[in-house]
Amino acid sequence: MEFMIDNWAFVAKGLGMTVRLALVILLFTTLVSAVFGVLATLPSRGLRLVIHAYVELFRSIPLIVNVFFIFFGAPMLGIDLTPFAAVTTGLTLWGSANGIEIVRGGLESVARHQWASAWALGLRPWQVYLHVIGPQSMRAILPAYTGLLTMLVQATSLGALVGVSEFLKVGQVIIERSAVMTGASPAFSVYGTVLLVYFVLCSSLSWLSRYLERRLGRPAMRAKGV
Amino acid sequence: MDFDLHYLLAQWPALLGGVLMTLRVSLLGIVLSLVIGILGGAVRVAAIPVLSQVVALYVELIRNTPILVQLFFIFYGLPAIGLELSLFWSGVLCLSLWAGAYQVENVRGGLGTVSHGMREAAVALSLRPLQYYSLVALPIAFRTSLPAMLNTAISLLKNSSYLQAIGLAELTFVAVDRIATDFRAIEMFSAICVLYLVLVALLSLATGRLSAHLQRPFRQ
């Protein structure tokens, strides 16, 4: 523990990088998921098939293989990626596969008659999505999406394997440094602390997800004041 | 950059070795995680004081921390306080503990669907609590939660790739190791993607057979 406190500025930088990774990935994932999640609910069969194939592929291959594929494979194709860009790309591809499913499922969870009424009122397709289906789908989407964010934060630890100086990497460096300086490895206490910090971060997100589920889950009950 | 199929064929023995190692840690991990799940799930449902809270804390701890950090804690952290495990068993322990937490929740969910009448019937037949769990509740719960258990098992198989980070010679390690000498990243990663897809498909297929077997009493 004292190693982490002695190196607090270094540790803070690592945590900052973890948060930055998570936020950048969250941004791109949200963009991709929103667009393709909506497209997946359109009647076009070909489109649905392509999106489904993408989702299944990226959910089936191990995340680490996905990130390594981009990190080691891109230079072979002549694309030069920084470790940060490689991790961001890999996790966005994977996060979007999960995000698309959440958005599609959320949109499809809105009652059929809501779609029918919106069309009967003569709303344009984008108006149907923006004013009628979208807001109602948030009830299903937000809790699941917060859960996805928890997984994304955890997955950023993969950055340590390709050389992004995020929280886990900072822990590794501290261990190596003090092992060289003092001869004893503080691995137990440092990794223990790293575990604890991730736990606090992610369980607050999990708590938020459960809170949203309770809060948004039962609108009929809430109206009755239950 | 051309795709060299002959290279992949030449690397076949190394890849096969990786597949076998992946299968070994994964199957051991699946079995041990199910043991954890069944014991932990029963403790949670029976609401045994203290023990139940400990299991709940374990589940939360595993689900809210990255598996990579758990792995490093087990492999590098535990030896620092005198708990030395071999590379292979560190990997198995990490995967079992990780998937065990999810299996606890799966078993708990399954046990929750067992109707109250079963419990009353078991009491009427003067079965002891342990007999009720092993002979009545668990077999019923197992059928309900089999799909969720399969999902966890598949995740475990995929997550066995994290063991690359501590140097266990499983499939991903073999691929990265070969790439370091031959620079054939596209070929290698395409190959292991396909191999992982095949392994996942085989696992699904096996569970499908098991599920069909368990559904026999209910078939018309």
Polypeptide structure, described:
Chain A has one domain: MetI-like (MetI-like fold, Orthogonal Bundle), CATH 1.10.3720. Helix content of chain A is 84%, strand content 0%. Chain A has helices at 2-6, 8-39, 45-60, 63-76, 83-109, 112-120, 125-155, 159-162, 167-182, 187-217, 219-223. In chain A, helix 2 (8-39) runs antiparallel to helix 9 and helix 9 runs antiparallel to helix 10. The relative contact order of chain A is 0.14. Chain B has 220 residues and is an all-alpha fold. Chain B has one domain (15-214): MetI-like (MetI-like fold, Orthogonal Bundle). Chain B is 80% helix and 0% strand. Chain B has helices at residues 5-10, 12-46, 51-63, 67-80, 87-112, 116-124, 129-159, 171-182, 185-214. Chain B starts with a helix and ends in a 6-residue tail after the last helix.
Most extensive interface? A-B, 38 and 39 residues
Helicity range of chain A: over 70%
Largest sheet of chain A: none
User: What is the CATH domain class of chain B?
Assistant: Mainly Alpha
Task: Label the structural class of chain A.
Answer: mainly alpha
What distance lies between the first and last C-alpha atoms of chain A, to the nearest angstrom? Answer: 46 Å
Number of helices of chain A: 11
Rg of chain A, Cα atoms, Å? 21 Å
Largest sheet of chain B: none
Percentage beta strand of chain A: under 5%
Summed over residues and divided by their number, the pLDDT of chain A gives a mean of 89
Helix content range of chain B: over 70%
Q: What overall form of chain B do the CA principal axes indicate?
A: flat
Q: Between the first and last Cα atoms of chain B, what is the distance in angstroms?
A: 57 Å
Overall geometry of chain A comes to elongated
CATH H-level superfamily title of chain B: MetI-like
How many β strands of chain A by DSSP? 0
Number of domains of chain A: 1
What order do the helices and strands of chain A follow? HHHHHHHHHHH
Give the name of the CATH superfamily of chain A.
Answer: MetI-like
